[in-house]
């Protein structure tokens, strides 16, 4: 007789006179069909723990078809949970929607009956993360086949989000009753709840929109926290009802090492450009797969995405990105300008009616050429800049006026006090002053501004030749200033050696760059001495020589602190306000290729999008991003 035979009989006497025990008569076989919202079976081999109303556990394993079977389960309410499979959250059972956060808190109960019951469970697929914080084994960053398939099935599009400055990797949260689900997880009075032993599950979703949610650790930390919040708000803006998450779309989170452990903003900019070069492989992989792409960056994340797009544009991959959304970008307002001395083409002729291109607002002002991304605009169809004059991190807002007017010790003390009063993300931006002060060397809390380059090149040049040290030794420079011709000759010879090493690196890297189209399986080579220009695909010898000359000027003439130029205002603070009459920007703005969204009347802090007001939800997320995104492509299946 089969194992299920007793369950087919009445609880007292069978037809042949045998007596069946009552507990055996109520046993049933439960089959759960586990699939994600895209119709894919959950990973084979995943353990599933089911608990019946007697509290007994029934373990099963998901097979290749996505089914787990649980025998001898007592008829009545049951609950189950996946074992060691992070990121899959229940959204529907038997075609009825279930809130995934509620299900994470308390496993939902479903009644099963004799002799067999089949349950259809639908889960959100796991989060999509590109981790650029650690090297890959073969040097190539890529999504897995399953992740590419996830994007294909979910509308054949990808929305990529890149976080900003000083954000650690962080971790996902745990589901907790502190989330305040407004009764979603409430139980009927007196109703017992079935709790699987592994019920404290990992939460890769937004559990709470409260301002203090970070302090209560409800939405994870670091980059995980940013991804959770941005993903949830974009889905809300796209039209997801809170009671039915089956259309919920996972975005692709790019985690990059913006938390350098120092207050040197320039070091974080270096990390951003290195990460942008690595992001190229991911973008090319998606392009090769035919997936449409929308990019969203916050703050210094703009340097990551603009580096990647500058390389794509320079290599002839034109308009491969549907939309680029730069939210409070911590880059120069002329970052998208093609007018830079570090390109191979000659500068355009000056137009007397427009002003000099050599000294005009559209020209590169960074002493080492890190300010502009001249070919980035070629790689995308549209650029949307969401900026706010009230962003006190990127420049002086109304609340910062007093600090701007202060000077000396009093100003430093008030600046530190404001820094301590700000939120975590805003603190990291203010440490050392607003974006417009990123080259400062005072106060000490600000770090050393462009003197970071002095340390950077000192460490590298002493490995080139001992003669190079003359370029950095204070006493040799002092002797040269006092008229010592030999000391001056030593310094000039040192810089000649450094310049040749820079040109040699450009030749060496150029020799490793393969001809033909960019390939997803071929990493871009790294630059070291030419790191400030690493947002370019290929650095030619003329570019390298010009860079070496500018580096020498920064060191010898300026003492590593330029005196004849100022930091351009941040794009995230003023948008294109000072560039409206520049021919390139004027044409792009008129054609709506460059779109400006001035958020100044509703966006009052650098990271306000994490816990948005209703106005931010409507005007920034919905009208500024989702509506514009859906004109060119889609957000998931919305």
Detailed description of the structure:
With 638 residues, this protein is an alpha/beta fold. It has 3 domains: 1-125 and 191-199, Immunoglobulin-like (Sandwich); 127-171 and 221-396 and 571-638, Alpha/Beta hydrolase fold, catalytic domain (Rossmann fold, 3-Layer(aba) Sandwich), CATH 3.40.50; 451-560, no CATH class. 30% of the residues lie in helices and 16% in strands. It has 16 helices and 18 strands. It has helices at 22-25, 100-105, 145-153, 222-238, 265-288, 301-314, 401-405, 408-421, 424-430, 451-461, 474-481, 485-512, 541-556, 571-574, 583-590, 614-632, and strands at 27-36, 47-52, 57-61, 67-74, 76-83, 89-93, 96-97, 110-112, 116-124, 128-131, 157-162, 173-174, 202-203, 252-255, 292-298, 321-327, 380-387, 594-598. The strands form 4 sheets. Strands 10-14-11-15-16-17-18 form a 7-stranded parallel beta sheet, with helices on both faces. A 5-stranded mixed beta sheet has the order 4-1-9-6-7. Helix 5 (265-288) crosses helix 6 and helix 11 crosses helix 12 (485-512). The radius of gyration is 30 Å and the shape is elongated. It starts with 21 loop residues before the first helix and ends in a 6-residue tail after the last helix. Mean pLDDT is 86; it is low at 1-22, 349-357, 400-425, 427-433 and 442-447. Residues 345-364 have a biased composition (Basic and acidic residues). InterPro entries: DUF900_hydrolase (IPR010297). GO terms for molecular function: hydrolase activity. Keywords: Hydrolase. Residues 337-364 are annotated as: Disordered.
């Amino acid at each position: 007789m089969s194992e299920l035979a007793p369950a087919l009989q009445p609880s007292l006497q069978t037809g042949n006179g045998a007596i069946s025990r009552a507990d055996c008569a109520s046993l049933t076989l439960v089959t759960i069909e586990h699939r994600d919202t895209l119709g894919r079976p959950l990973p084979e081999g995943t353990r599933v723990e089911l608990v019946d109303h007697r509290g007994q556990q029934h373990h099963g394993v998901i097979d290749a078809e996505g089914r787990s079977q649980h025998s001898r389960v007592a008829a009545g309410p049951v609950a189950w949970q996946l074992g060691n499979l992070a990121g899959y959250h229940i959204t529907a059972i038997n075609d009825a929607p279930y809130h995934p956060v509620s299900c994470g808190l308390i496993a939902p109960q479903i009644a099963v009956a004799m002799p067999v019951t089949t349950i259809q469970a639908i889960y959100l697929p796991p989060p999509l993360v590109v981790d650029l914080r650690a090297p890959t084994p073969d040097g190539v960053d890529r999504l897995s086949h399953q992740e590419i398939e996830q994007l294909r099935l979910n509308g054949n599009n990808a929305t990529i989000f890149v976080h900003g400055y000083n954000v650690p990797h962080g971790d996902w949260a745990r589901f907790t009753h502190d989330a305040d689900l407004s009764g979603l997880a409430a139980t009927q009075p007196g109703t017992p709840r079935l709790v699987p032993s592994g019920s404290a599950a990992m939460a890769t979703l937004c559990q709470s929109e409260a301002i203090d949610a970070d302090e209560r650790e409800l939405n994870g930390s670091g980059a995980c926290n940013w991804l959770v919040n941005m993903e949830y708000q974009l889905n809300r803006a796209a039209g997801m009802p809170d009671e039915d998450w089956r259309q919920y779309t996972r975005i692709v989170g790019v985690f990059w090492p913006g938390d350098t452990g120092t207050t040197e903003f320039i070091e974080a900019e270096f990390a951003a450009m290195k990460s942008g070069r690595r992001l190229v492989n991911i973008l090319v992989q998606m392009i090769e797969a035919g997936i449409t792409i929308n990019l969203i960056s916050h703050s210094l994340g703009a340097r990551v995405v603009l580096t990647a797009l500058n390389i794509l544009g320079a290599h002839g991959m034109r308009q491969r990105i549907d939309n680029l959304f730069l939210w409070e970008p911590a880059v120069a307002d002329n970052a998208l300008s093609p007018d830079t001395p570090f390109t191979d083409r000659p500068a355009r002729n000056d137009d007397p009616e427009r002003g000099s291109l050599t000294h005009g607002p559209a020209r590169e002002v960074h002493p080492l050429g890190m300010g502009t991304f001249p070919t980035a605009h070629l790689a995308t169809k549209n650029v949307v800049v969401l900026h706010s004059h009230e962003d006190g991190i990127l420049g002086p807002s109304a609340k910062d006026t007093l600090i701007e007017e202060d000077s000396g010790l009093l100003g430093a003390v008030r600046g530190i006090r404001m820094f301590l009063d700000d939120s975590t993300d805003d603190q990291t931006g203010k440490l050392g002053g607003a974006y417009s002060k990123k080259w400062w060397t005072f106060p000490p809390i600000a770090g050393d501004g462009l003197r970071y380059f002095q340390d950077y090149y000192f460490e590298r040049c002493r490995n080139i030749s001992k003669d190079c040290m003359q370029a950095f030794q204070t006493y040799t420079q002092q002797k040269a200033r006092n008229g010592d011709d030999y000391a001056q000759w030593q310094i000039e010879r040192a810089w000649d050696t450094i310049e040749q090493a820079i040109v040699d690196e450009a030749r060496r890297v150029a020799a490793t760059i393969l001809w033909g189209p960019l390939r997803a399986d071929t990493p871009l080579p790294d630059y070291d001495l030419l790191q400030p220009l690493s947002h370019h695909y290929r650095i030619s010898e003329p570019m390298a020589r010009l860079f070496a000359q500018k580096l020498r000027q920064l060191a010898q003439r300026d003492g590593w602190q330029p005196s004849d130029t100022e930091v351009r205002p941040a794009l995230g603070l003023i948008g294109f306000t000072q560039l409206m009459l520049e021919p390139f920007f004027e044409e792009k703005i008129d054609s709506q290729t460059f779109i400006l969204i001035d958020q100044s009347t509703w966006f009052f802090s650098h990271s306000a999008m994490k816990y948005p007001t209703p106005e931010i939800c409507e005007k920034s997320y919905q009208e500024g991003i989702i509506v514009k995104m859906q004109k060119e492509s889609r957000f998931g299946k919305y």
